[in-house]
């Protein structure tokens, strides 16, 4: 797939780590949650896919569990947040599975575009969107499944310096019911959206969303995700 101008610019830029470097670039379990994954062979009534991910991560001493970009998943359909959108199955961010309260840093200078708390079952939970400028281009980064108490002093319009901690990873109790992780997503054009942006899309709309939401690994730069 050809890179958009924004994707080419992000690819060439060196960003600050989004979580502590030892985690972002440490030994990782890259999870395959697609319908054909071997992971599902080990899922039973008493051993969920989340349990299986923990087992696999422990087996390789992984310090981070990574969920893939543009991956089709069927794990959302029993969540209330997806009750009226069963065709939404393709994940448009990268998930960084680390412990709750892990700090989250700005990869590049930006301003706080929005702060929200989407508390539906399966939703983002506490969410921040930053607005950035890079080589004359505007883009946004979305951070979902956050710890609400970590950014209570933050306001829309605040300037966040590159490398500044501005929030932290949330707990399962507050993050929409998921295991603690950060959903990182890049958005070129927010359209009519303000404090939210779709993170799981209908495959029929994938061409549009792949162009508007390029691979977050353009920021993370893990070699094993290319």
From TrEMBL:
UniProt-listed Pfam families: Peptidase_M23 (PF01551)
Domain of life the protein comes from: Bacteria
Matches recorded under SUPFAM superfamilies: Duplicated hybrid motif
Sequence ranges assigned to domain M23ase beta-sheet core in this UniProt record: 90-189
GO molecular-function terms, A-Z: metalloendopeptidase activity
Alphabetized PANTHER family for the sequence: MUREIN HYDROLASE ACTIVATOR ENVC, PEPTIDASE-RELATED
Name the record gives this protein: Peptidase M23
